């Protein structure tokens, strides 16, 4: 039990003292995960909307593929990205292995299917509901999509959070393509893995607590945005 | 649209400064050297003298060599001489040099059920373990330590492979993870001394056997071959190599201690 107590006091001390190496690691984690989230969303939401509203051959199969890709093991994604961006791989000329770029690519591949699959599901429901009305009033597809997005913004926010959660918490992919290099590609999860391997369990757990706190803050902000757009918590 | 501006600014603020990368020397090395804080000590000294920075990727020796073969390194520091020589012979590296050494130790539970503290040689110690069959944790990851361990088991008249999953447990993990498992299972394992000394979750584990010359742990250094890997920063990496082998570099290696104990002994041939 003393490990837990020690972990909490270590976490507290790290936060209070604003440990610079910790801040660097936390900041890099946030930057990488949010960049991945933005890129994955830019491509994921339109594809999700397309899958939700258009019917074409192979649509069901594509949806099934995206659904199952949500369960991709990060370590496999990491390995594939490594083989691609290795100096001896097809994208080796980019020279991005062991940089945050490679980590973002890996995380985009991890969260993209989540964004597509979940947004398809949500927009599909709405589309079923509104399709006939929109047809009657001959609402253009563009307006329809905007209506759907506005109508389901809370659910879409939840998708963002799911994607962010996956990105910030995974270690398997970023440790392979990032290399856990100090002051370059070391993030929260790879630091936790490193400290565990050094047998410093209280420090590892303390970092885990901070990571959890970070997730909590992001979710609180999201809840705030949600309640803000619907006119206050009570409204 | 205003609301979407902020994430985009965040993205840009992140991407722009990172556009200036690629100047550093890329070193593939082992967890034993990195986790003990060795590079944290020695790399700033090198930077002070030359202005060059080194990025360290710390993995098992097997994977480090594999990564270097894929050209994902400029220089390699590992501890498995035969594998290093093979790496050079296959054209992956230019030439291999002795850099420094320390030794391996056999750690196990304080109670020492196999009574290896009474033994005089490592073969005898492992023979005792193979008779009593307490849990023995193997790295099982093709690392330098794993190769060494298998070599040592080769001197014992049993084949540990037959007991894999029984008392002989292969973790396929790094030294630290393997020590965590050994501590939890009150098991024996073989560790390099640097990792052992800096490891913090020892529980009932302690050194039960050490000192046999066969436990010698030699670290070697080699430049990645630019003929095979044209993108390597050979000039810079060569400066680093020469510095490590120079009197300055060697004495810095000697100066590095953890809790007053020297972790690596320089032995480059001048």
Write structural notes for this entry.
The complex is a heterodimer of chains A (235) and B (270). Chain A is mostly helical and 235 residues long. Chain A has one domain: MetI-like (MetI-like fold, Orthogonal Bundle). Chain A has ten helices and no strands. Chain A is globular. The termini of chain A are far apart. Residues 231-235 of chain A have low confidence and may be disordered. Chain B is α/β, with parallel strands linked by helices and 270 residues long. Chain B has two domains: 22-102 and 218-266, 3-Layer(aba) Sandwich (D-Maltodextrin-Binding Protein, domain 2); 103-215, Periplasmic binding protein-like II (D-Maltodextrin-Binding Protein, domain 2), CATH 3.40.190.10. Helix content of chain B is 40%, strand content 24%. Chain B has eleven helices and twelve strands. Chain B has helices spanning 2-15, 31-35, 38-50, 61-69, 81-89, 122-132, 144-153, 175-185, 193-198, 234-245, 247-255; strands spanning 25-30, 54-59, 75-78, 93-109, 136-138, 168-170, 188-192, 205-209, 216-224, 257-258, 261-262, 265-266. In chain B, strands 1, 2, 3, 4, 5, 6, 7, 8, 9 and 12 form a ten-stranded mixed β-sheet that branches. Chain B has a two-stranded antiparallel sheet with strand order 10-11. In chain B, strand 5, helix 7 (144-153) and strand 6 (168-170) form a beta-alpha-beta unit. The radius of gyration of chain B is 21 Å and the shape is globular. The N and C termini of chain B lie far apart (66 Å). The A-B interface holds A 31-32, 34-35, 38, 86-89, 92, 95, 97-101, 179-182, 184, 194, 196-201 and B 7-8, 10-11, 14-15, 18, 21-22, 24, 26, 31, 35, 40, 55-58, 67, 70-72, 174-177, 179-180, 183, 198-202, 229, 231.
Which percent range describes the beta-strand content of chain A? under 5%
N-to-C CA distance of chain A: 44 Å
Order of helices and strands of chain B: HEHHEHEHEHEHEHEHEEHHEEE
Helix percentage of chain A: over 70%
What's the architecture of the largest domain in chain B, going by CATH?
3-Layer(aba) Sandwich
Helical/strand content category of chain A: mainly alpha
Shape of chain A: globular
How many domains would you count in the coordinates of chain A?
1
Shape of chain B: globular
Q: What is the N-to-C order of secondary-structure elements of chain A (H for helix, E for strand)?
A: HHHHHHHHHH
**Greatest interface by residues involved:** A-B, 28 and 36 residues
Give the uncertain stretches of chain A in residue-range form: 231-235
The multimeric state of the shown protein is heterodimer
Number of helices of chain A: 10
């Amino acid at each position: 039990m003393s490990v837990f107590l020690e972990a909490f006091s270590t976490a507290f001390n790290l936060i209070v003292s604003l440990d610079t190496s910790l801040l660097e690691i936390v900041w890099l984690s946030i930057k990488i995960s949010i960049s991945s989230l933005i890129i994955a969303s830019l491509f994921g939401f339109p594809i999700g909307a397309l899958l939700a509203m258009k019917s074409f051959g192979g649509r069901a199969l594509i949806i099934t593929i995206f659904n199952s890709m949500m369960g991709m093991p990060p370590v496999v994604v990491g390995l594939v990205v490594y083989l691609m961006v290795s100096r001896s791989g097809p994208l080796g000329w980019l020279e991005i292995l062991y940089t945050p770029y490679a980590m973002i690519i890996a995380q985009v591949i991890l969260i993209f299917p989540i964004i597509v699959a979940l947004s398809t599901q949500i927009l599909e429901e709405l589309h079923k509901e509104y399709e006939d009305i929109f047809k009657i009033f001959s609402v253009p597809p563009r307006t329809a999509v905007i209506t759907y997005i506005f109508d389901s913004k809370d659910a879409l926010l939840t998708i963002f959070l799911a994607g962010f959660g996956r990105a910030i918490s995974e270690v398997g992919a970023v440790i392979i393509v990032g290399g856990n290099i100090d002051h370059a590609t070391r993030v929260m999860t790879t630091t936790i893995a490193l400290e565990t391997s050094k047998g410093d369990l209280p420090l590892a757990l303390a970092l885990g607590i901070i990571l959890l706190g970070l997730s909590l803050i992001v979710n609180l902000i999201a809840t705030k945005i949600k309640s803000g757009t619907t006119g206050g918590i009570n409204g | 649209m205003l609301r979407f501006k902020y994430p985009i600014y965040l993205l840009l603020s992140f991407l722009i400064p990172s556009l200036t990368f690629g100047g550093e020397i890329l070193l593939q090395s082992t967890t034993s050297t990195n986790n003990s804080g060795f590079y944290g000590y020695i790399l700033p000294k090198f930077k002070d003298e030359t202005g060059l920075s080194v990025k360290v990727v710390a993995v098992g020796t097997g994977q480090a060599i594999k990564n270097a073969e894929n050209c994902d390194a400029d220089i390699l520091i590992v501890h498995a001489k035969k594998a290093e020589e093979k790496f050079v012979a296959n054209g992956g590296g230019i030439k291999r040099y002795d850099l420094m050494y320390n030794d391996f130790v056999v750690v196990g539970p304080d109670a020492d059920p196999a009574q290896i503290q009474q033994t005089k040689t490592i073969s005898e110690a492992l023979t005792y373990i193979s008779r009593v069959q307490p849990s023995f944790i193997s790295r099982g990851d093709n690392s330098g330590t794993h190769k060494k361990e298998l070599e040592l088991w080769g001197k014992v008249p049993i084949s540990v492979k037959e007991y894999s999953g029984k008392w002989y447990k292969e973790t396929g993990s790094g030294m630290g993870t393997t020590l965590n498992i050994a501590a939890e299972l009150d098991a024996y394992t073989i560790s390099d001394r640097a990792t052992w000394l800096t490891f913090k979750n020892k529980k009932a584990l302690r050194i039960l056997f050490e000192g046999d010359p066969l436990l010698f742990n030699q670290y070697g250094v080699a430049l990645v071959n630019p003929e095979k890997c044209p993108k390597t920063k050979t000039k810079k990496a060569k400066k680093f190599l020469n510095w490590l082998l120079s009197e300055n570099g060697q004495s810095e290696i000697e100066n590095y201690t953890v809790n007053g104990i020297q972790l690596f002994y320089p032995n480059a041939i001048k």
